[in-house]
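Here is an idea for our session: we take a single protein and study its fold together. Start from the sequence, derive the backbone structure tokens from it, and show both lines together. Once you have written the record down, we can walk along the chain together:
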Amino acid sequence: MRTRCDKFYNLPELMNIFFEVADIKTAESLNLPRPEANFHTITCEPTEVQKEMVGVLSERADRVRSKAVKKEEDNMLAITNDGRKLGLDQRVVNSNLPDDPKSKVNIATENVFNIWEKTKADKSTLSTPSEKIGKNVSVK
């Protein structure tokens, strides 16, 4: 039979003891160079199907609030989770729904591909770890 630590008690004290024996180095303490991040905000309009499904989510939330359904049948966490999936792409909720070329997933995919196209000579985007530690293999 094996046992394992299930829970930590007095975590701040445990961390202090760990810092006494560990040599912790951060990127700031090592003064490591970091590339500048380029952030882009892109908005996507919902499809008609998504608008209808948001209405269904609202009805579900009303039923949960009025306690018309049992917690095991539906709850706010499940509704929120479905809403997040729906916001990403309607096909995440139902794979039989049509693909929208203007969905968040499709626009993100197109954006990643465009960045890869622009920088493929440098092999600086989209890499996966190789079997050799510290080396990357470019995705083609």
Observations:
- The CA atoms of residues 67 and 120 lie 55 Å apart.
